[in-house]
Amino acid sequence: MMETKILIDNGHGSNTPCKCSPDRRYYEWIYTREIASAVVKHLQYRGYDALLLTPEPYDVSLRTRTDRVNTWCNKLGKHNVCLVSIHTNAAGNGKEWMTARGWSCYTSRGQTPGDRLATCLYQAAALYLPGHKLRRDYSDGDPDLEADFALLKNTLCASALSENLFHDNPQDLLFLESTLGRNALVSLHVKGIIDYLLAK
Prior knowledge:
alpha/beta; 6 helices
């Protein structure tokens, strides 16, 4: 069996407005690049074929990101590629603190190959985020939330998008910024992805 190419995407870029905490001490594009880069390094250290999809500091269009994923799918076969896009969530417009909290993972609508990937990530999140709310939707039998995000809907492989707590909630943000929080988010993605690959 061909080794799976693991593509790790990071949310947004330096030129994306409003993706920050209300006090401007946190910027999603910086944080998610740090987490995504660490996930790639940990997977590579364990011998997996992992690649950072968007190494650029600026925002790369969804069309370009999708094309990059599908290029690998066409080269290796869509069953030999998987994608995880790493973000942090926000309930407001970046101007005030909000009360929403929790971790979630999205796939495209319907039953898709990404559902099993997302389930593995949820299982890992339950281990590494004790005490944190896991935002789930079991209406279709699995925990992932579903949306028409272009990077999920238009890619050919198993794809999932994680929303790693809320950067406009002061309690969630403290955890995100802590060493414990950073390590937990890296570890849950690494474990979730490996568990998905081992079960293929």
